[in-house]
Specification:
alpha/beta; 8 helices; TIM Barrel
Length: 202
């Protein structure tokens, strides 16, 4: 594959600056998206929402809400498979199909890609890089897809935030409830929330 001269993988931001990001992976959870967006609007915060292509096809109105709320949009594959089990051609299709759908529905060409489940190998990384996508993983995980107690999520995240942290969440009830406390506690410690592109291009 042709080598691309760009950043290939991001797992955290600069450790020298008090900036952190939250990435929201979206393939379900529609019932909580509006409330999350309303809270972010109140606080004037921009996060990075990684959207599954199939989800954007099925729920374009929710995808437009996210875009219209000035949130950054990333690529979360088309069908949420473990990409490490696919061929390079299949991985390429997962990424390019999603970019095409996001561009058609939202008029955006995502720069960032995150693999389902965080499953990543050389083949996935090289394919994304070949497509001129920067792969993003997280450094802190809410595990909100299985943790129902918001206080448990807060306890997992807040004490471990440091410069450059990237926090993974999904549109779940537990993260919706935990999010204001996570943001307020981080801001009390003078951390600034940025989208991925804002943190990388500081």
């Amino acid at each position: 594959m042709e080598e691309k001269k760009h950043q290939v993988l991001i797992t955290h931001g600069s450790e020298s600056a008090p900036m952190i990001s939250i990435m929201v992976n979206v393939a379900w959870g529609n019932e909580y998206i509006i409330d999350i967006l309303e809270y972010l609007k109140e606080r004037n915060l921009s996060l990075t929402f990684f959207l599954e292509g199939r989800w954007v096809e099925q729920f374009p109105e929710y995808a437009r809400m996210i875009r219209d709320a000035n949130q950054e949009i990333g690529n979360h594959s088309y069908s949420h498979q473990d990409l490490t089990t696919l061929s390079a051609a299949e991985i390429e299709m997962e990424i390019t199909n999603t970019n095409k759908i996001i561009n058609e529905v939202l008029g955006i060409r995502p720069q960032y890609f995150t693999p389902p489940y965080g499953y990543l190998d050389k083949k996935v990384l090289e394919t994304a890089s070949y497509l001129n996508m920067v792969t993003v993983l997280w450094s802190l995980d809410t595990l909100d897809w299985k943790i129902e107690d918001p206080s448990e999520i807060i306890d997992r995240i807040v004490p471990n935030i440091k410069n450059g942290s990237i926090i993974l969440m999904h549109p779940t009830k537990s993260s919706l409830i935990a999010l204001p406390t996570i943001i307020e506690k981080a801001q009390e410690k003078n951390y600034h929330f940025k989208s991925i592109i804002q943190m990388v291009n500081k």
